[in-house]
Amino acid sequence: MSDDEPSAKKPKISDLEAERKTWENDQVWHARRTFLESHWNDLPLENLRCLSQVFINVNMIGCEYNPGVMEKIKELGAGIMDKARRLKNERAFVKASVGRKHANEIREQTEAERRPTVEQRKANRTPFEDKLIQLRAHLQIADLHSTPLQKLNTACARQQMQWQYVDKIDGAELRMNDHLICKRKFSREGFDRKEEMISTVVEAIAQAESMSVVEKELFFGEPPNVRGPYDCYEDSICRRFTRVSRHMNGKAPSMANLSEAMAYHGLAMKHDMQPTKRWEQKLVVHCGDVLLAERILKKEDCIASKTQQIIAEVAKQIIRSISVPKLVKGGDESLSLKLE
Question: Can you give the C-alpha Rg of the chain in angstroms?
Answer without folding.
Answer: 23
